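Hi R.,

As promised on Friday, here is the backbone we talked about, encoded as structure tokens. Could you run it through your design pipeline when you get a chance and send me back a sequence?
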């Protein structure tokens, strides 16, 4: 699955109402994201999180701003978290957060820094993924499911195209830096 259509659908679902001139409550716009029906997405959960009420795994203090927490699972078992600030606080920018190494973890501390922002940069919409192989506490190594996902996933033309798109994008970014 290509990430751009997924992000576009979530973006419009979260912020499209403001663009259309209607302004529902943040909680309504956020929880409505759970109703999206997207290809290859097996689960979407969207929760409106009030400021200072949520402490993410591995973080000592609660997240200091209100945000919409969107948890997505894409077939076969790729976990993605998107944190969306309120439309009034959003700086109209997206900050992707990597897990480093084999990226087997969702980077909660980076998500918190991006969504809280600061006076200079504002608050980012942000996302992180375990890329389908959760590390389960094994820093720097692919998790126990990495091989299973690769072996059990059928190599359909769409999956091969997706892998090709990702690798060419990665190569293009690496070569231009």
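Update: got your reply. Pasting your designed sequence below so it's all in one thread:
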């Amino acid at each position: 699955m290509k990430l751009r259509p997924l992000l576009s659908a979530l973006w419009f679902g979260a912020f499209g109402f403001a663009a259309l001139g209607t302004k529902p409550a943040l909680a309504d716009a956020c929880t409505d994201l759970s109703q999206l029906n997207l290809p290859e997405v097996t689960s979407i959960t969207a929760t409106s999180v009030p400021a200072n009420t949520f402490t993410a795994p591995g973080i000592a203090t609660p997240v200091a701003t209100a945000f919409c927490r969107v948890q997505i699972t894409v077939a076969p078992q790729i976990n993605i978290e998107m944190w969306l600030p309120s439309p009034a606080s959003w700086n109209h920018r997206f900050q992707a957060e990597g897990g480093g190494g084999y990226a087997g973890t969702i980077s909660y501390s980076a998500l918190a820094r991006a969504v809280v922002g600061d006076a200079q940069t504002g608050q980012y919409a942000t996302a992180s993924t375990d890329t389908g192989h959760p590390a389960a506490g094994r820093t720097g190594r692919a998790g126990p499911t990495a091989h299973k996902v690769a072996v059990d996933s059928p190599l359909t033309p769409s999956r091969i195209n997706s892998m090709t798109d990702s690798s060419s994008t990665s190569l293009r970014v690496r070569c231009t830096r």
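One thing I noticed while checking it: The longest strand covers residues 41-49.

Thanks again,
M.
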